[in-house]
Amino acid sequence: MNCSEAESLLPAAAPGGLSAARQRALAEHLAACPACRQAQAAFTDLLENWRTETAQTPVPPAATMWARVRAQKQAPRRPHRPNPMFWLGLPLAAAAAVAFVFLTPGPAAPETARAEFVETGDAASTMVYVDKESGWLVVWAADQKG
User: Fold this and answer.
1) Could you tell me which CATH number the domain at 3-56 has?
2) Burial of 91 (0-12, 13-18, 19+ CB in 10 A)
């Protein structure tokens, strides 16, 4: 048996938790391995502390707890009313939304490109175009040779 197997068996090492063969193999390993004996001692201390703590925790009688649960279940429920701050916050939120819509500047108006005069020189074919999306003024001029 190796240390990993031995440490995994420590929680089940209580009487009746392991088969006789496993109990014997664990005991042989613990006799030969100081690290696993230390792990067993730490686990035993942890278990004893847990038992001590749980023994000191008061547990109310089950009948008392059931009576309390039944009383809560049978008690009339009052309707849920929103917090008064909700009624104050709702109009304030609406006013903020309206102010945001009216006070936020809208998209900038597109600038329109204008050309008073386009000189094409000796080009035989000319076309002028204004792109509506970008506002660019585009001039095509082609020479006619030949």
Assistant:
1) 1.10.10
2) exposed
